């Protein structure tokens, strides 16, 4: 990504005063191609002169193998040009690009040469040329390693929406390691370009932001996070992360120290006395938000925003057939950056397999967006500072929480007991995972914030999103789908490049069904007609009921069952307990060791099993203690807690298994329990009972084999313990 996303180097590349690689008009049309129009004896452009001491053998042998399809004389000359590209990328990007163009003229069908030309064009700020070359390299070589550069070049052309599309595509999300980090830095920078610094922060929070890390990648990540914080009007936090970036930057790859100096000057009493207004003004003056986003640890790629570049966003047409992210006629076209919004990118360090060197590139950036404060909680009381969970607690054993909403985090319009206080106090990623397809993520986040939670839409993963993604994997872009559901579901479908139909007469390629209170006989009949005509059928979820303050209402699963009964077909399911939604939530969290927390055994807990994650059942919603004891193996959680405050309980105490505080004996179909001490852990009773009941029902550790659940009785000789058993409602399992 642009060094705006990586942190500026000491020479200041990517800042507005540097127009290297651009012509006099600043629009990427170099006035001097350094001999690229001279013709050699073969009739090809000779390209810039090649020093006598530069020989083909200077190029790595593995790289030279890619040139074996050329005749020897041509291969040697191409190799020498590639050597020059590697030597000049940092010191003279315009001349490096001239050498890359010369190599391309001689070997346009060699993927490595096209990749080198793309990196050189990117480094020189020639965004359109970079896109063309990088896409050509992808078509020849395959793979996804160039996606971050392609996305960042879209930013350079003033199209952050396209950069975000690439980052959020299936290929973009499949990146791993440093490539995934690069993509997040680019996405975060694009979010800032689009005026969404809060989303930029959430994007980067999927990365390892441990301040003690060192090295260029850590420095750039911290720098990007600092830039996102600055864009979000969190200046003090930004200063801290610029300090972290400077400390991590052992190779002196960023200008974090320079940025700190600028911020120190801007934070003098004369410039900070005006409150928020001056803070926003300072963001534009510093220009660090986009310049620097790409190195910060928790939020966004840094992008240099000084408004001095004059890239012509109008000159941004790209051959649709070469696009890596397909766009259909139903996909809304990203808004163009206003003509006055110039975008300037900073240095980009991208590994080039063809030159075995690091390519530094500049990427155009729109002006810095106005800083936006975090959404305030509904309550006026200050939230506790997030902190590491208590050592040994349940949540201390995991890197992220995947939280169900209805019945877990809230019930109707009220938080469940202790939910807000517990979640606000925890310093780890929290992803809200809902089967409700009727609301868009922004609406879900707004609902959470109205109850005093702190949530952004990027923390929300809905079954509508997963169903739309599943749809895009099974139908061609530009196809049409009959949508049964709310406008929110229809919009998710449009955003994956699929058109929306409202009648079976439109001959849709698919039917996608989500919950809507307006679904009726007529709409269900349209779905049945389309499915019988051969349309693919996808359901967002199959929840039979929908929790409400009045009780359980008819859910989407009941409506799906009506269509299934009429057609004899079965849908592909995106939501819990199916894997697609849970897999999307895992990707969003950025970690693999997450804990699923939910109130329903048949959706939340079974969904955790579908992706191999541990889970905790909370008893604030649909499933009861008796349901837990009767649960089939695929619906059994690893832990059980009364409510979300149980996340802070000792992990061993709430893990389902034998408990030292409780003695459980099984005789026939009777389970007898007694306390082993004067003050047993009450929260450990149900985990101990579940362990014993499952062993009894499965025939484990019991000579007589499995028993009928209706015959099982749970009792105790201790009246106090019997009272607790009665309170749980598990005296018998009939």
UniProtKB/TrEMBL annotation:
Keywords of the record: Hydrolase
NCBIfam families: HAD-SF-IIA
Bias (Low complexity): 351-382
Protein's organism: Gordonia jacobaea
Keyword Hydrolase in record: yes
Name used for this protein in its record: HAD family hydrolase
Signal peptide: none
Listed transmembrane segments: none
Keyword Hydrolase: yes
Basic and acidic residues bias (residue ranges): 1-42
Location of the region described as Disordered in the Swiss-Prot/TrEMBL record: 1-56, 291-393, 705-734
Domain of life according to the entry: Bacteria
GO MF assignments: hydrolase activity
GCN5-related N-acetyltransferase-like domain span: 659-705
Pfam families: GNAT_like (PF18407), Hydrolase_6 (PF13344), Hydrolase_like (PF13242)
């Amino acid at each position: 990504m642009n060094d705006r996303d990586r942190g500026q180097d000491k020479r200041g590349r990517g800042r507005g005063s540097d127009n290297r690689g651009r012509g006099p008009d600043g629009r990427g049309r170099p006035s001097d191609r350094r001999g690229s129009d001279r013709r050699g004896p073969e009739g090809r452009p000779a390209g810039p002169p090649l020093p006598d001491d530069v020989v083909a053998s200077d190029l790595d042998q593995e790289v030279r193998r890619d040139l074996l399809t050329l005749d020897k004389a041509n291969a040697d000359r191409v190799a020498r040009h590639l050597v020059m590209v590697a030597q000049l990328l940092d010191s003279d990007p315009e001349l490096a690009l001239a050498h890359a163009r010369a190599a391309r003229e001689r070997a346009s069908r060699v993927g490595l040469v096209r990749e080198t030309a793309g990196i050189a064009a990117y480094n020189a700020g020639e965004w359109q040329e970079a896109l063309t070359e990088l896409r050509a390299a992808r078509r020849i070589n395959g793979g996804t390693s160039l996606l971050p550069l392609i996305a960042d070049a879209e930013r350079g052309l003033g199209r952050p929406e396209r950069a975000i599309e690439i980052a959020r595509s299936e290929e973009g999300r499949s990146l791993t390691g440093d490539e995934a980090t690069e993509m997040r830095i680019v996405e975060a920078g694009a979010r800032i370009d689009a005026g969404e610094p809060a989303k930029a922060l959430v994007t980067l929070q999927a990365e390892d932001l441990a301040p003690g890390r060192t090295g260029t990648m850590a420095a750039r990540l911290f720098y990007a996070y600092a830039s996102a914080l600055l864009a979000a009007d969190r200046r003090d936090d930004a200063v801290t992360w610029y300090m972290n970036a400077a400390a991590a930057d052992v190779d002196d790859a960023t200008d974090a120290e320079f940025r700190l100096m600028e911020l120190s000057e801007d934070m003098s009493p004369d410039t900070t006395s005006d409150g928020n207004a001056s803070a926003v003004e300072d963001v534009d003056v510093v220009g660090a938000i986009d310049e620097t986003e790409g190195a910060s640890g928790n939020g966004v790629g840094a992008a240099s925003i000084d408004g001095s570049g004059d890239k012509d966003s109008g000159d941004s047409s790209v051959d649709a057939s070469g696009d890596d992210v397909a766009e259909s006629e139903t996909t809304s076209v990203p808004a163009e950056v206003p003509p006055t919004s110039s975008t300037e990118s900073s240095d980009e360090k991208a590994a080039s397999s063809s030159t075995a060197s690091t390519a530094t590139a500049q990427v155009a950036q729109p002006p810095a967006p106005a800083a936006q404060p975090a959404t305030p909680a509904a309550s006026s009381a200050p939230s506790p500072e997030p902190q590491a969970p208590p050592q040994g607690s349940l949540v201390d054993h995991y890197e992220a929480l995947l939280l169900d909403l209805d019945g877990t985090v809230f019930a109707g319009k009220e938080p469940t007991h202790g939910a807000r206080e517990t979640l606000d106090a925890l310093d780890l990623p929290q992803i809200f995972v809902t089967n409700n397809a009727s609301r868009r993520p922004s609406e879900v986040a707004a609902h959470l914030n109205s109850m005093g939670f702190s949530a952004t839409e990027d923390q929300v993963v809905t079954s509508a999103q997963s169903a739309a993604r599943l749809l895009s994997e099974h139908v061609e872009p530009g196809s049409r789908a009959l949508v049964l559901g709310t406008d929110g579901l229809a919009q998710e479908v449009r955003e994956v490049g699929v058109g929306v139909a409202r009648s079976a007469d439109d001959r849709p390629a698919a039917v996608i069904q989500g919950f809507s209170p307006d679904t009726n006989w007529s709409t269900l009949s349209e779905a049945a007609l389309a499915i019988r005509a051969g349309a693919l059928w996808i359901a967002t979820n199959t929840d039979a009921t929908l929790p409400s303050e009045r009780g359980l209402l008819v859910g989407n699963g009941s409506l799906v069952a009506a269509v299934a009964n009429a057609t004899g077909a079965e849908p592909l399911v995106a939501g819990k307990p199916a894997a697609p939604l849970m897999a999307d939530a895992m990707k969003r969290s950025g970690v693999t060791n997450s804990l699923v927390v939910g109130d329903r055994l048949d959706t939340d807990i079974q969904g955790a099993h579908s992706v191999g994650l541990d889970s905790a059942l909370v008893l604030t919603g649909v499933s009861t203690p008796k349901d837990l004891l009767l649960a089939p193996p695929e619906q059994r959680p690893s832990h059980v807690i009364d409510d979300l405050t149980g996340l802070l309980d000792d992990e061993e105490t709430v893990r389902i298994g034998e408990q030292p505080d409780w003695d459980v004996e099984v005789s026939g179909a009777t389970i007898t329990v007694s306390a082993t001490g004067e003050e047993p852990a009450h929260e450990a009773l149900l985990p101990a009972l579940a362990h014993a009941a499952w062993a009894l029902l499965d025939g484990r550790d019991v000579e007589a084999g499995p028993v009928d659940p209706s015959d099982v009785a749970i009792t105790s000789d201790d009246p106090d313990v019997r009272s607790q058993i009665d309170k749980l409602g598990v005296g018998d399992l009939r």
